[in-house]
Amino acid sequence: MISTTPAYQPPPSVPKLSLTNVHKAFGQKVVLDGVSIDIRPGESVVVIGGSGTGKSVLLKSILGLITPDSGSILIDGQETVGLRGRKRDTVLRKFGMLFQGAALFDSLPVWENVAFGLIQGEGMARGPARDKAVEKLAQVGLGPEVADLFPSELSGGMQKRVGLARAIADEPEIIFFDEPTTGLDPIMADVINDLIVKCVKELGATALSITHDMASARKIADRIAMLHKGRLIWTGPASQVFDSGNPYVDQFVHGRASGPITMAVRA
Amino acid sequence: MNSTNPVTAFLDFLALVGRVLLAFFNRVGRLSTFTAMAVFHCLTPPFYPRTLLRQMVEIGYYSLPVVGLTTLFSGMVLALQSHTGFARFAAEGAVATVVVISMTRELGPVLAGLMVAGRVGASMAAEIGTMRVTEQIDALSTLSTNPFKYLIAPRLLAGALMLPLLVLVGDIIGVFGGYLIGTYKLGFNPGNYIQRTWEFLETMDVVSGLVKASTFGFIIALMGCYNGYTSRGGAQGVGQATRNAVVSASILILVFNYLITELFFAR
Ligand SMILES: Nc1ncnc2c1ncn2[C@@H]1O[C@H](COP(=O)(O)OP(=O)(O)OP(=O)(O)O)[C@@H](O)[C@H]1O
Ligand SMILES: [Mg+2]
To answer: How many CB atoms lie within 10 A of CB B261?
Structure first.
């Protein structure tokens, strides 16, 4: 795209991502019930919360894959709720996303998955895109021999890492990681944590991650927020998460079955 | 049951009719919007020649055996049937003409359309449906690729372009089937049969068949894509989408077959 005016640069005080009172219900089931949070450029925020509390829905709402019922989502100060067509494409160009289920294109070999954004989005030629893909695969601990396999030929953890390589391949400004270390062995999980930290620190990307893995959360997060019953009930620096003074957070991070959060199971 | 009051019973009935009608118009509306969007994206860049080519091979080349076999046997049976039928009023000489006109106007496009609906429409719905439920379509949008342009437009174009070619080949094979039976079994003179085939054939017979074919190709791809794209809920949803794609495409093919015939030949 050719434009004569320089790209809009927001002043540094504007949050990269600003959510105000976001609501989303599926039929009767209220999932997001007024979520508000501001994320500064270059900040890494981790959202924790029980299974099924709507963490993935939150990420998808920001991406516009799910339309929120109400509330406002600003990206670089620009309202994105209700954006359509080409304007939405421009906004989405800033994002990279690792899906919880990896969501690899199973009709394409691994390297084309990783290079997809480079080839289709940025119009890079296939040769150089392949080299770049192999380089990104190496960063997530996968050798060049994986490049020509198809996603169905990979283990779950390998698929996850390919998804991660795809999310960071075109060096997006904002990266969402939905459970990046789930299904990985502890050593590889730590490699991935380092990689996420590196993306944020070196590329200056803004990161919003979801994880159940508290070690990972402490390592990658500047700030941690807890989602419970559709709201962010606690937000604070990562260092404070183990002595937050909030009974919900305490129960969650220490993994206790008894406490204010009750699970709907029959004993 | 205490709804014996005829007024409430009548109102219940009206409500039921209303609900059914609303659901129907809701569906028609959705399909129309989908079609309009799809056509719009067929005509505006970026285009994806690679995917288009792949779909053209998939629809055109790989459907040849099934279309060839169907039309071959239809041409053969047509010659046999019309011979025995026409013998009743001593018009056996018309066999060659009947075979070629029925093949080009009707049997070629309809049989090829129905066979391809089962083969290609089903696989499109299954593939796109699987992409939907495994979040691959969401992943496309986060990689700055419009799913309509990347997935749907190439399939619609390939359907509308390749079916006429398939039908042309099918017409020839069908006429050849009639020729085989005519000369080897019914004792026609080969030169005579071929001359009879050409004698009364008009350009419009072939052209109308090809217009039908193109329309059917579009319908097949549209139904496959629409049902796949809107599928919900795992393997069962994908199965349902596949079935709906084949059934709705087959019915629409028969309806449009009538409409186009009316358009071309009704005086
Ligand atoms: N497309 C949808 N239609 C209907 N309900 C949905 C849809 N997507 C999510 N939900 C519901 O929203 C709730 C939150 O789902 P979500 O996937 O965000 O959970 P989560 O917090 O990511 O959980 P987990 O940690 O297990 O991944 C769930 O109860 C789910 O049933
Ligand atoms: Mg989730």
So the answer is: 14
